[in-house]
Design a protein that fits this description.
The chain contains five helices and two strands. It is α+β, with helices and mostly antiparallel strands and about 110 residues long. Strands 1-2 form a two-stranded antiparallel ribbon. α2 packs across α3. It is elongated, with a radius of gyration of 16 Å. The mean pLDDT is about 90.
């Protein structure tokens, strides 16, 4: 089932982080990228909840990597944005840009 293009802020951030980190986008790297660029720190639980929601919506896909000794033999789960994800993100960001365009910031903040 296709998801609406109405993305939350955290969904936008996750999708942008996945695109930036490709092909090394996994939970910890996505969380770290968002923290580095925005200063916002999400819990691992909320990161994985959003990733699951995005995957269920068909906006991202996941693929298991190799198990590593550093992770106690556990595999990383890597995420990739889909074509639908890219389209939804672009529509969502363009809508925000359209609302911001020509906004009188000085007057609004006075």
């Amino acid at each position: 089932m296709a998801k609406s293009t109405d993305l939350t802020l955290v969904e936008q951030q996750m999708l942008l982080a996945i695109m930036r980190l490709r092909p090394n986008a996994y939970g910890v790297s996505i969380r770290d990228e968002i923290k580095t660029r925005t200063g916002k720190e999400y819990s691992f639980g909320s990161v994985y909840a959003v990733l699951e929601r995005l995957e269920d919506s068909g906006l991202i896909t996941s693929q298991e990597g190799e198990a590593t000794a550093a992770r106690g033999g556990r595999k990383k789960l890597y995420f990739t944005i889909t074509g639908n994800g890219q389209k939804s993100l672009q529509v969502s960001l363009c809508a925000i840009d359209a609302l911001r365009e020509g906004f009188p910031w000085k007057e609004a903040l006075a």
